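Final paragraph of the annual report: two paired records, presented back to back.
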Amino acid sequence: MPARPDYKAIVDAPDRSAEDRALDAGRHPLELLSFLGLGPGMKVGEVAAGGGYTSELLARTVAPDGVVYGQNSKFILERFAEKPWSERLKKPVMKNVVRVDSDFSEPFPDTIHDLDAVINVLFYHDTVWQKADRERMNRTIFRTLRSGGQYVVVDHSARAGAGLNDVETLHRIEEALERLEEGTFGYCFECGDEIEERRLRALPFAVRCKDCEEARETAERRERQQANRRSSGFLIDLN
């Protein structure tokens, strides 16, 4: 495992565009890179690279010897991404990015394999209303990963029980359904252990085991109590 780079330095790189920096507040790039834990020399695929905001961050992270495969569908390219994506790929920092034009149903060809990670940022829900064969898509993605590689999806979470109802209107998808399609449903998001069947029957949308959910609730309760104590101070005016 290569040493992790300075993710903050990557995000703060002076040659990043003003347009990308303007997106940082909503995209949380430092948190994303820290979560992924990628480093120099790694091979990464991005599904729905769009104009390349995330692809450039990944390219900087795995440089100088790593590679990023940035995939876009014909729909994305024709709708909005062709010009910004093509322009970004001309930047020197993108020299280790390989453009992949393909359908979502089979995002990567057989020649791409042994990837350390495949990432889909804020677009999984769009594959639903665009009628992609998601089962085939996910099967292809898992085929491209090396043993132990990670498939990471970042998306807007719909309310529990919403299913696919909000994918086109609110651009959100229920987290439990997304994990079911990825093949990670039934496993705790925090510790990775299998969630007991009794809990899933009672809460089909559960993404944490009972112990991790209780730990999360305890931590949140403690944070609220500390916040309340900090805001409960008072001032006595002696004048």
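The closing record of the year follows.
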Amino acid sequence: MFMSFEKFCVKCGKDTEALIHGMCTECYLKRNDLFEMKDINIDICVKCGKARIKGSWTFPSDEIVANEISSKVKLLHSIEQPKIFVEITPITKIDYSAKITVEGLLEGTIVKQTKTDEFYLQKVSCDSCMKLVSNYREAIIQLRATNREEADAMLEVTKQLLLNESAKDSLSAPIKILSEKNGHDLWIGSNKGATKVARKLCKLYKTNLIVSKKQTGGGFGNKAVYRFTYSIKKK
């Protein structure tokens, strides 16, 4: 003769096959957290509006911020097939509410827990903007023409090209513009951005690019640091 035993929750007495450490799902989740969240505040640059996401600066969106918060969720148990869902609701311009849900399998039983926490956008200055404020520059673009009118026209084209480039690299924006005889000198924080724009200008004006460099740091065993000058002369 075989005896059958019904499974039940040791806390509430509910008959159920879905038990976790002897407790039904409801009783277990009342006494145990599936996850915790620590420091979900996000740095945002007051100058350019980019946010620090996984150590890099990028323009934020709800999806990007939600993914960043999701990456900061710490699971407290060996949950199989875990899924994390994040819903963001603005409270003020810098304060937000995050509804975070974690679900998965724990000891073969489906579990789901939701918590709500608040976070804020912490105003800071990103590395690029700090460099721009300090007149940091890696390159100079020299524009020259036969007269002031043509030089001014070249300047407007160059500023637009740099603006387009700065959407990807903030340091590509001109830090300072100096007017010279029949031309302009633009200080650029990013040599990479300056190189791209200088090449586009040469192609546009069908002229040769003259490149020079000056050492500004390093040497004697350390990697040399150079500032590049790109000269574009419209004939």
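The radius of gyration is 29 Å. This concludes the annual technical report; the extension proposal builds directly on these records.
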